[in-house]
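Annex B. Sample input.
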Amino acid sequence: MKVSHKRSVEAPILGTFSGDALCYRTEVLNSTEVDIKIVWFQFFIEEHGSWCGYTVKNRVLREADFLQAYHGGDAFQDGWILPGHTAVCDPNWHGGDLDHFPRVKWSFLAVDREGETYFDEAEVAKECVSYIHKSAE
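Annex B, continued. Sample output.
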């Protein structure tokens, strides 16, 4: 499994953000030779030298959350990511602005049909993000 972040190619829907946001594309590639399923994923921010987990749902994210947020055409079969296929969240986002850009990352845990686990994570580079300003309504 390989996680990566790139510039977003989709137009973010401003209504999904409660404030200013940094938007980007997150891809989860199944680089294995077997079907995998994401069972846990989490956003982390570095604070005072330690990684702290946060999500808009105030809990770790699970399989149902992943399937709701990630798409990829023919990447999925009954919730499993097929070998060589990529699940995509575009736009993915987190709150903030470009002037105060801390280290952030997304981490993912997957299992295959035999119960083997796979883990990967990737930091979001400042070069990957687009800044979305949510004006007061």
